[in-house]
Structure formats: C-alpha cells, structure tokens
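Quick one: structure for this chain?
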Amino acid sequence: MVKNRKKEIREGKIAYFPSRPTTANSFNPRGAKNKKQSIQKKKAAPAVDYPVEDGRYDTHSNPKKGLSLFAKLFAFTAIVLALITIIVLLPAFRLEHVEIKGNNYVSSEAIYRELNFKQDRHAFLDLGPSLKNIVLMRYGKIEAHLLETFPEISSVKANFSWPSGIKIQVEEGIETACIRSGLEFALIDSSGKVLRLVDSAPDYLPVLEDFGGLELLVPGRQLDEDEMKILETCTEITAQLILSDKVHPDSQALAILTKSIQPLKNGYANLILQFEDETVWRVKISNGRSLADDVKKLHELIDSGKLLGQGSGQLDLTTDKMVFRKDNP
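Got it. Here's what it folds into:
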C-alpha cells in the first residue's frame, strides 16, 4: 500500500489540500476592488450636523478683531493726550510779542493799544470764535475789533505766529474821492465809506464841492443812496480825466489841474481848473454820453494855448461851439 502511495505521488495522482494564502504572495482582484469601494463609501458619507444652542458656538467670531480695535482706540487717545500736553506746556505757545504789518495811516502804537495784549498768555485761549478760525489759528475777535475801531482799515488778518507771537496783517482802504465837509475834507473809498478827515485836500484828487448831504461826514460813515449817485458821477468824471491824461502824456495833466468838481442838475458838472499862473477856469461839461468828447475838447484847447492868455473865466463845452466868458478885472 505504501508502494502504491509513493507511485501515485510520483505520477501526480494525489490531490493536496490547498495551502492557506499568505499576505506576501496572495492577490485577490475582486477582494481588492470591494475594499476600495468600501473606503470610498466611507469618505463620501455625509457629515452629521448635531444641533447646538443658538449663539453658543459662534464659528465666525474673531477675538483678535476686538482686541485690535481697542488697541487702536487706546493709541489714538494716547496721541491726543500727548499733543494736548505738548500744546499746554510748550513755551513756544506762550505769547511774547506782536508783529504789525501793512499799516500806513494807522499807527502801530494805536493798533497795539487796542489789542490789550498780555504777555505769557497762552496762544490758544483767544482763538476763534468759529471752528474755522481755530483750525487756521486766527483771532476773529481781534480782527472784528480792529475793523470797528479804525475805519481806515478795510481788512485785517490776525493769526498765531510761531513761536510766541501774534501777526497782524492790515490792509487800509484806498481813497478815490475827496469831499469838502465844512472846513475839513473827507476822504472816501470806492464803496462810499468815509475813511478819515484831513485839514487840506490832497493834490492827487479833485475836491467834490456842494455835495448836498445834510449829515456830517465822520470816519466810518457810509454814504446814503442819493450821495452815492453823486459820488458815482464825480468818480466817472475823474476817471475820464485820468484816461485822457494817459492818451496825452506830454500835455498838462487834467487830473492835477482840476481842483474841484461841482455836480449840477440836468446831467452837467463844473470843473475848477487852476493853472500855475493862478489862472482859474470854470469849465462846464456834460456827465452823460458826451463826457469823453468834452474832456477831449478841453485837452486840445489847453494844448493849443489859445485861451491861456485870456486869464480867468468860464468855459462852456456843452454847446456846439465853445464859449469862453472872461471874468471882469
């Protein structure tokens, strides 16, 4: 029997039990595929959303953001306090001097007296009153007080000047007319404001005679509507005289020869011209459309010298022909 078994083994007729596969040499394609599908199913499984209490867990909260905002607020407050401390304690913000510029007729001493300046006073105490003035470091109350006190001043700017000073820039009004007021002469600017009174009339402005105002002319007074109309007429005549002088630069200047202007009714005016030899002409002109022509005739007549030897008299340029009436000796 043993021999027969050996013979069967040699001939390969005996069927052995299959050996158990090992991890090293075993391979099952179907099993690997099933395992891969199982892993994919596990990965694709939906996440379970467990219920939570409202507001208990804020997933969008950022604790660092609140801390950053607080830090910025703290830094800003510290900077502001530091600046305030510097402003209060820095000696450069303590006033020590005043600088006044631009004044001509108004003295610096008179302006200084009106300031009521106090040394070592903090510069920020008198700033304002508006926020704009505070930002620009201007003293609005000082400006308003100077404008009210001195009619000669048309504009003024008072601001802090580094270090320890106040700078006052003054702009005075420019006189464009001179009006006789009793024994004095009132100088008027283009807006009709009385700048000041002088004892003698300036050589560069003709005097407006017989102005007709019942109210006294005092510095700071504003001319009324009727007075402004008369002033505008006289100003137009003066401007035409100056323009004619520019056209005739080699002739005698009419603006200098004309000592006074007397407005008349019905659109006329009298010019009082005084020459170097004390000859006086009273010239009647129109203050309307023919004003330029009348002034041109006057300039040509003076240049010709035809009437200068006739002495003083009255000249009428409002008619077609010039009429000269000599004064009685």
